[in-house]
Amino acid sequence: MMRFPVCPVVWPGTARLGDSVGFDVDLVNTYSVDKSVRVKLEIDGIVVDVVETTISAGHSAGVLLHWNVPDDFSVGEHTVKIQAWSRDINSDEDAPWNPEDSETGPINVERPKDLLFGKLVPNVDDIVVQGTVVHFDVIVENKNVSPAYNVPIRVLYTYQDPNGEFSDSKGIFERKPRQIDGLGTNITWFEITLTNPGKHYFTLYVNGEIEDEKIITVISNSSVVAWMTCSPEFVSEDVDSVSCRIEVENLDSMPVDIWITDIYFAGGKIYDRTEGDNLIASNPESLTLNPDYSEMFTFTIPINGELQKRVPVDLSDINLGTPIAIQAYLNQLKEPVTYVIEMNPRPVTAGDVAEAMYSGAKWVKDEIVGTFTDVRSIAGGAGATKGLVKFLAKRGIEISSESAGMIFGAFALYVKLWIYVLENPIPGDDPGDNNLIIGD
């Protein structure tokens, strides 16, 4: 039995880099004589503090030890040990210390919490009707006297449908201000239209830490209640389709006939009930719902070249995990039902390159040269190079066939880029809704 028990009073479980951490223990002298006591604080076996004191026989004393956590210390769990040693109070200076009681425990070392504080401020109460456009101010305060640089600010969005099922979280807002002045504030904003009934969660992260969360409940403003969910929620490069379902419930006292009128993907129309050339089909085409009865529509969206032709964005040139809105309009509802998925850029195929080359060549033929008669020969091989050699020769410029081939290939792609710029002008100053969702 140890005659000098060590009794922890204050034993921190966490410490931050650069902090000074205190450990307070009580020592009890159960000997019949006074004792000199030495107490060591060890972190992972390394002594970081030593305190010596004298404790009378039968008495106790408190000892406070400190650890100054180095700024470059490894983050994670470490072992703390406090060991007591004693000897007679009149011992020689070189007399040995006798080991007494010890206490061992863990401490978790973390990175220091910055002095950045964020909050989400919506312009609505926590309950709104379908179709409400919600404006969020995103406010980040730097309470440090020094500036903060390149601060990542993100808002993640999660949807909970009326059945209680949660969607995956999607990043719908992101900023990285180059500098927030000391004791300064950064204010930005975004808007989002909430159309699905249920709960919508918005979580603000500043510098990787959760700072605020807002929950907005959307209620139906119609006797017909509908919401949409889609799967998979993340469309990676090897995913070739997305399946969606729309659950519809009739709260009216009379039967209603319901059908889907239009469906959009990333802002491009992929279904129109009044037209025949549709990318997808609604199953079923229509529903007759009796009072207090529910049913569902389903449809599958192919992720292919035909989809690309119908949407206004280049799906091979989006960012990793870009949020994409899928919207469906029903005849009984004013606002669409919406679901957000995330999508990686689609891989560019050889067919895409060939189509770009042909388009560029045709543009050269139709808009610049105006003398070639065989567009197919322009789009490939010898015809292209010979045509370019002849065209330049008429204007006093002589080049080899090899050089012509290289010039033509580069020029055709260059022209294709210019076509894209002409057909897709740079947006004006209007920031729109200022969120990352395409097609909402």
Strand and helix map with partners:
Elements: E1 6-10, E2 14-16, E3 20-28, E4 35-43, E5 46-55, E6 60-68, E7 76-88, E8 98-110, E9 116-122, E10 127-129, E11 132-142, E12 148-149, E13 153-160, E14 170-175, E15 179-180, E16 185-194, E17 198-206, E18 209-219, E19 224-231, E20 234-235, E21 241-250, E22 256-265, E23 268-272, E24 286-289, E25 293-302, H1 305-310, E26 322-330, E27 337-343, H2 350-369, H3 375-379, H4 382-393, H5 401-423
Parallel strand pairs: 2-8, 10-18, 20-27
Antiparallel strand pairs: 1-3, 3-6, 4-5, 4-7, 7-8, 9-11, 11-16, 12-15, 13-14, 13-17, 17-18, 19-21, 21-25, 22-23, 22-24, 22-26, 26-27
Helix pairs in contact: 2-5, 4-5
Structure description:
This protein is an alpha+beta fold. The chain folds into four domains: 6-110, Immunoglobulin-like, CATH 2.60.40; 116-219, Immunoglobulins (Immunoglobulin-like); 224-343, Immunoglobulins (Immunoglobulin-like, Sandwich), CATH 2.60.40; 350-423, no CATH class. 15% of the residues lie in helices and 47% in strands. It contains five helices and 27 strands. It has helices spanning 305-310, 350-369, 375-379, 382-393, 401-423; strands at 6-10, 14-16, 20-28, 35-43, 46-55, 60-68, 76-88, 98-110, 116-122, 127-129, 132-142, 148-149, 153-160, 170-175, 179-180, 185-194, 198-206, 209-219, 224-231, 234-235, 241-250, 256-265, 268-272, 286-289, 293-302, 322-330, 337-343. The strands form seven sheets. Strands 20, 22, 23, 24, 26 and 27 form a six-stranded mixed sheet that branches. Strands 2-8-7-4-5 form a five-stranded mixed sheet, with no helix packed on it. A five-stranded mixed sheet has the order 10-18-17-13-14, with no helix packed on it. A hairpin with a 2-residue loop joins β4 (35-43) and β5. α2 (350-369) packs across α5 and α4 (382-393) packs across α5. The radius of gyration is 35 Å and the shape is elongated. The model is unreliable at 371-381, 413-418 and 420-430 (pLDDT under 50).
